[in-house]
Amino acid sequence: MIFLPYIYEDELLYSVFARYHHYSGNENPKETMNELYGSHTTCATTLFPTNLNTLLHGFPTPNSFQVKELIIKNTGLPYYTPFIPNERNLELKKLMVEGNGTSFYMKLGRTASTIKNKKYLYCCKSCVNEDTFNN
């Protein structure tokens, strides 16, 4: 990875990946994932990115980021943390750092959930305007 887009404090890593893909000029998302993770079979997930150690080692300045900080500020896990036992929270964090994501949703309890994922991401237009104005 030659460059890294600025990571905003409350921005999902998925958004950072999307901006990297756009700025890199890559046409194929698999090419982008290969540049980010060193593997074209890695799949970007919206809320719970995994294998973060590999991702961090590929950053142009790998020591400037802490994996725990990325999980807290740039993933969806903090929104689930109040509703899951501490032991499971620690397991999920470990999966995000070292895992490949195959059992993440099962451990989270989402596989049997009646809560369905949206097909597309949504954004708040006034929030985008506020972020654009303030940054």
From TrEMBL:
Residue ranges of every copy of the TniQ domain listed in the record: 5-133
InterPro entries named among the record's database cross-references: TniQ
Organism: Gracilibacillus dipsosauri
Phylogenetic classification of the source organism: Bacteria, Bacillati, Bacillota, Bacilli, Bacillales
Record Pfam families: TniQ
Domain of life, per lineage: Bacteria
This protein's name: TniQ domain-containing protein
